[in-house]
Amino acid sequence: MGLDIFHVIPSIKTDESFDYLNLDEFVDNKEFLQNYQHLITDIEYFDREFEILVFPDLATKTLVSKTNKSYSDIPNLVGDLTYLQEHANQLAADNAFPDKKPTILKIVNNLLTKDKSKEVYYHSITYKSPPKTKKVLFYSVKGYQRKGMNSKFIKDFVNEKLYFDKNSLLKAYSYLDPTWSDDKTELQQHFKETFIDNFIEGESIFFISW
User: Fold this and answer.
1) CA distances from 76 to 12, 79, 97, 104, 198 (A)
2) What pLDDT is stored for residue 121 in this prediction?
């Protein structure tokens, strides 16, 4: 289990922006969110994927299934992909996307043998649901720490919960516990400079993830 600790502030979305918070994460501090309405952004996302395997013949299906036990739970078709494409599309629609037409995300052609004179492929088709839209708040990172806390820390702080007060940072500081390769003084200084000294209530957010 990894432990990641963040100090972030809301920011405008740019072409390099990838990290964001969902609005429902602010359920305990809606007032904070109100102050950043101008930064709330709509993004598209896909909430579901669906995979279908296509084998050229039963012999290939049997061989692949023996070496990939997880494939037994994946819907499959047997035959030439060229003629089965529409069938596969309908299978995806019937099983995963009954209300909307699925979109093909990717088709992977898996080579079963390296013998060029006897090349045998089976195919994996991954479908994605039509895009949905949700509102999010992008952020920029002001402080980051990997691990460096004692075991009591994860008992007293809630995973993925947002903290908005400096007292939580001061409390977190008391749990600092370097690994064998780190220096405690350096760890304390880093946390103080990138989490505590630059933390501004009403702007900063502190959260952990493991």
Assistant:
1) 44, 10, 17, 16, 55
2) 87
> What's the rounded Cα separation, in Å, for the pair 74 and 50?
9
Whole-angstrom distance, CA of residue 206 vs CA of residue 31 = 16
Task: Please give the Cα distance from 173 to 182 (Å, whole number).
Answer: 16
Backbone angles phi, psi at 154, to 5 degrees: -75, -10
Tell me what pLDDT residue 117 has. 63
- Cα of first residue to Cα of last residue in the chain, in angstroms, is 6
DSSP label at residue 130: P
CB–CB of 141/6 below 8 Å? yes
- Which letter does DSSP use for residue 129 in this model? P
In this prediction, residue 181 carries a pLDDT of 67
CA distances in angstroms from 48 to 125, 132, 134, listed in the order given: 14, 10, 15
Return the pLDDT at 71.
86
Four-residue CA torsion sign, 30, 34, 40, 42: positive
pLDDT mean values, one per 10 residues, the chain (210 residues): 89 87 94 95 86 93 85 91 90 80 86 71 88 92 93 92 96 88 86 96 95
Contact 174, 42 (CB under 8 A): no
For the chain, what is the total number of helices (H) and then of strands (E)? 6, 9
Q: Residue 165's pLDDT is what?
A: 96
